[in-house]
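Why does residue order matter? Because the sequence determines the fold. Keep that principle in mind as you read this record.
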Amino acid sequence: MTQELLNMEQLGGVAGGTKLETTEDCEFLNSLNGSIRRYSITDIGIHDYDDKVRSAWAKLGVSVIVDSGNFFSNGDANKYYVNGKQVSQEAARQHAMQVFGKQMTREDWNW
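Structure:
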């Protein structure tokens, strides 16, 4: 049996969704253009910020179905769309950076 490492996009497809994914959306969008606060996973579990996350992505040309769940459940994987085509979270990030004109690495926003 061989071991293979997954890249971040592949890992996102496996791990997908829920509060953690939405938390990462907030971190990324906050660092990119300040369009949303950096909500913690606890904030997202207690309060419903799904509409704010959707709105922040929409400003960058990405439609998102956000389901962060609630305090007791994780919800479902977020679904990202660019020009009507479903894309990965990483592809949505790349599109947003292109639209905004700012490139970042994961280290730039995941702190």
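The CA atoms of residues 17 and 30 lie 19 Å apart.
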